[in-house]
UniProtKB/TrEMBL annotation:
This is Response regulator. Keywords: DNA-binding, Phosphoprotein, Transcription, Transcription regulation. The keyword Transcription applies. Residues 371-469 form the HTH araC/xylS-type domain. The modification 4-aspartylphosphate is found at D55.
Amino acid sequence: MHKALIVDDESWVVESLKDLVDWERHGFEIVGQAYNGADALASMKELKPDVVFTDIRMPEMSGLELIQRGRNLEHPILFVVVSGYAEFAYAQKAISYGAIAYCLKPFDEMEISGVLLKLDKMLAAAKPAPASSLLHFLEEPGEASRLKLLEELERAGFGDWTVDGIVPVVAVGPGDLHAKGPFVRLKTGASKSVYLLRAAEASALEAEWRERFPPGLSGIGIAGAIKDLGEVRTGIDAADALAHQFFVTRDCGVYAAQTFRQEELNRCLADMSEAISGKSGPAIRQAFKGIAELFGSRALSIRHAFQVYNMTVSFLFKLGQTEETLYGYEQLIRSYRDAFDMLAALEALVARNMSPAEPALSIETKNRNFNSILQYVTQHFRQELSLQGLSEQFYMNPSYISQLFRKEVGETLTGYIARLRIQHAQELLNEDDDTIQEIAEKIGYQDYFYFTRLFKKMTGKTPTQYRGERP
């Protein structure tokens, strides 16, 4: 997904350009907006967009000056000028300064779409080749892919890495992690990248990142050194969890391996299970208090937040409740500000389900309301959908919606969306030449590894194997 920044001193112009076309469908993500040249330049340094759409006449710094100064930045940027002035001199000067297009206000959807198509082709052509050996090795580990990865490490200049080992690092956020020395990088999501570094460089870079945290990132996770390629995937998973530690600490930062208090959490969850089964309000509150204290002491990770959420929901299942489970860290982060916001929402959920039950709603037959919900989900399955969001949109109890899905469709909302997404992914793998990562993002999954695991679970094949069988 290419990153775009929109710059105009009139906010309505920015909003109209954002809403005019489906940016995501064209392969773009709007990562920021600015209302003057100075702020735009600062955003360009921080967010490192691939494309900047800029007005010409703006306070403090004109669009033409912004292009001049932007082209001196280390990160290459393509510029598109948007202006209300249909004067050849402006267009000529903009092109001479490096703009690749000149669009007039008011915007025309076809014109902007054409510009995005042109930009996508230019950016794709300039994009460095992905670390395909690492990708293949992680998706289908085996001797052949192991040898290819060894070759790639050698080409990158790793030398005899078996002495000190390789360190997996994961960076979360739209910013860039500027690695030095030999490294292999693999982008595994719209805002996530995996790096393999030699242990010596990783140690030096960790000190630099702690002293000056890279802008645009939320978290950097650094796993322990590994000396066996068979441990690469485990190391990446560990670094991934550490990179999301900001969800617990509420602070952007660098997080390395630490000892977590799993046994204490297990005791709290056992107390929680007993308290929910016995419908004891004081005991439930005490269990949540104990878990909150563990998170407050930073003795737990996002893995534990994930565990707390899903186990609490499973305890409610035993009472006949039908809340949806979560399947990835990204779902937690999109749903809650941090671990404490999640705990508050869970405690409120449990409290609601401890209250006297409302009169049961009949779900013997389909109804128009559910047909509307089903049609909406079927049309918008690529978007982020939830029971709570559908509840607010269609004015229906979220538990009732969940019951209807199980009764009328035969599976949960999450399962239904996953099935639609994987079916669409199969179509794209057969028809398009997009990368697997790009296809994952198109269907609504921002994490490459989660998508490939789910695809294999539902089809019996990895996306690469499935694509290899097409005629």
